[in-house]
Amino acid sequence: MIDSIMKRLGVSHDLYQNGNYTVRTPIDGSAMGQVSLEGAEAVEERIAKAQQAFEAWRKVPAPRRGELVRLFAQQLRDHKEDLGRLVTWECGKILQEGLGEVQEMIDICDLAVGQSRQLYGLTIASERPGHHMRESWHPLGPIGLITAFNFPVAPWAWNAALALVCGNSLLWKPSEKTPLCALACQALLERAMEEFGDDAPKDLSQVIIGDRDAGERLVDDPRIPLISATGSTRMGREVAPRVAARFGRSILELGGNNAMILAPSADLDMAVRAILFSAVGTAGQRCTTLRRLIVHESIRDEVVDRLKKAYAGIRIGDPMEGYLVGPLIDSQAYEQMQSALERARQQGAKIFGGERHLADTYPDGYYVSPAIVEVEQQDDLVRHETFAPILYVMGYRDFDDALAMNNDVPQGLSSCVFTTDVREAETFVSAVGSDCGIANVNIGPSGAEIGGAFGGEKETGGGRESGSDVWKSYMRRQTNTVNYSRELPLAQGIKFD
Ligand code: NAD
């Protein structure tokens, strides 16, 4: 099956079958392909080509650049099913979510096409007669993209679609766990480039198949003015100072530890459904996964009972086959989950679920039942992002305490409140409310739309991707003052003669 999907997506057999690095599906641990990891020399060559491609692409008018992204979106529409299946196969999320990821790529392309006619600058009043000032936005350079396994295609597209219309070339280092998805996206973009014509330079977009060493080479190279890196806080802690040391820019999209405050006035039917999707979806492997439920003591027992009933009915199995929860990415993820649960057990927490499933059917696939862990306080274990389906449940009595708990973690990605009390809702999204990049009311913390800026504060890295005015991150701002008079007045009235 892999051959027929890859063929339809336009990936040449050599690229994914003749290498020395085995790519495995988390579904059953079997090999999907063999890719070649690129070393220092290959990366160096690619950076040089990206620089050349940038020099040509920046001259193409922005609305014309938008046309390339429009054609790419058409390729994605035509191949949504195949690419969605590949996402599911390579990273293990259920097919509905695999397809959703491709839809997100299409959505950001549509946004970027419109944006290509709206790279607006300002005109600014000059204090000098016969002068005008304006602000121009220019292409930035080759953009280095480093991505995580759990969203193998959409975050690349959030960056790529905007970076392309902004006049930049792309160098993508995908996760070593999901290189095939990257090869497929690249093949679809190359098809769009063929249709587009000669003004798209050949090396406008390149994929670097490699591990963290390849990522580090991008991070340290001064020819790459912007590194956009998605992954763990550990990775961001290494990347950020290295990019800063060469005065490069970075967009960091790192770990989250997202909470829901569940108030007594909330619509509990809605809340339970929201908890289920955001705590259990993608087998707890979303950066925006709900990890902490801060529930009012008066409804705590009822909510936990309802959740246990809902969790007991979750269908766990092959993500291609209509189950709700697929596998964890690998054995390491499973061990990290078990070690977090063991620590919780030792601390006296009440644990529901968390066991391995289907080990007989898939000895090399790591399926687990999502866990509910009732704890008395928010300690270091709860403050840490364990990238697995563990939902910590804690009680509160006073809304201000709940808000303080929401914010009392090192990460600051997503958050939400379920309430019908307008004071609580508005406080949550106010300056004294949630300290996260995303704060929702009566919606779970995961499943963002592309129209808003996506990202978070504190150890989540501070970056923003996707909608709003994020396009500005992929351009350099220039202030222009033009003198169309015959005099040379100086600013601030300075006399210099
Ligand atoms: P990871 O940090 O292990 O790897 C992410 C990427 O960084 C990979 O491509 C890897 O090769 C590369 N990398 C690792 N160390 C590097 C280094 N020193 N220099 C350069 N590149 C390096 O993350 P993962 O396990 O693939 O993904 C899961 C993590 O990503 C979770 O913490 C999750 O919350 C986070 N994540 C965040 C977002 C977001 O938007 N905030 C989105 C998805 C995932």
Automatic annotation (TrEMBL):
Oligomer and partners: Homotetramer.
Active site: E253
Family membership: Belongs to the aldehyde dehydrogenase family.
The name this protein goes by in its record: aldehyde dehydrogenase (NAD(+))
PROSITE patterns referenced in this protein's UniProt entry, alphabetically: ALDEHYDE_DEHYDR_GLU
Domain called Aldehyde dehydrogenase: residue spans: 20-479
EC number: 1.2.1.3
UniProt superkingdom: Bacteria
Organism of origin: Litchfieldella qijiaojingensis
InterPro entries per record: Ald_DH/histidinol_DH, Ald_DH_C, Ald_DH_CS_GLU, Ald_DH_N, Aldehyde_DH_dom, ALDH7A1-like
The entry's keywords: NAD, Oxidoreductase
